[in-house]
Amino acid sequence: MWKLRVPVLLMLLGVLAFSLPVNTARAEIYKWTDERGNVHYSDEKPEDHSTETVTPNTEKMGVELTQPATAQEWKQQVLGDPVSPANTSTPAPAATTSTSAAGIDTNRVDICESVVGLCFTPQQDYVCKLRYGTHCWDVYYWKVCRLQDCEDRHLVDKCDSPFYFLDNRPVMLGRRDVSRPLPLRESVSAQDWACLSSHGFFCDEVTNEPLCRQEYNQSCTELKNWLEAARQRCNANRDGDCKDIDVLLRYRPAPLEEMKKSGVRNAMGGITRHDLLFQSMDVTHNDAASNARLQPVLESITGLNIDPKRKWYDCDQQRHSIINHN
Description:
By secondary structure, the protein is mainly alpha-helical. It has one domain (3-218, 253-325). It contains 14 helices and 7 strands. It has helices at residues 68-79, 122-132, 136-140, 142-152, 162-167, 190-199, 209-216, 220-224, 226-237, 245-248, 256-262, 276-280, 288-300, 315-325, and strands spanning 15-18, 29-33, 39-42, 52-54, 62-65, 264-265, 271-272. It has a 3-stranded antiparallel β-sheet with strand order 3-2-4, with no helix packed on it. Strands 1-5 form a two-stranded antiparallel sheet. It is globular, with a radius of gyration of 20 Å. The protein starts with 14 loop residues before the first strand and ends with a helix.
């Protein structure tokens, strides 16, 4: 049985976070099993299920937490805090749930199912391009398409490996996208949709000045105004149709993590790649221990999670359809 198709820990409500070592975790954690036999861990005791109290350990269990502050603390134990609170008076962004405004986990429910033609509207695609530099579809279906490619090539030792999937994720998906929903109007708050539509960032990402400086080497004000600055540079360079988002994406500010994942030319003329997500978790190998820690990260990072009853998506045909449509 393919392990990714039957995840042990389903995140149905609240914020995804991860366990702390015993000496730092203080919350009561309840373990319970639903009607389908799926095991859950939560800091809120369910009224309709029998539970047992457990102590979080260093196996990095996926835990569903209802308190944002606690969730953020647990998440930082796995992913690390890009800006240490000890070094700045500005707090790190709060953890964000992948549950949509309608109460639907957009990482688990296929919002494109039964949609005829192209799934995402031009406005939605515009926001995805601001955020990721590519179509919503490329970010949304990457796990499904990576699985199909893996199975087509009979890579039997990799198709159920979280390490393989995350190692081959789109380069623009990094630590900032763990527990973030796909930025659609239906899956984010009205405030975040306004911010995403203006500059491609969630609102809290451009209010943390140390984070803006560290991750983008720009001020938060520059990041919020990058689109207008891009139009001005485009016009000055006579760089084509400066009203076209695909032209303006040449000026899109990419985070340091994305650039390192894409590859940086070294002194010898070669390309050196670094995965800061893996480095923050001290993951270096595709082994059982690493995969146990990476499984909840894979499920919580942006993109449709794989369902055992999924239909077969024609990834190449859909991509050609997008290209032809444009």
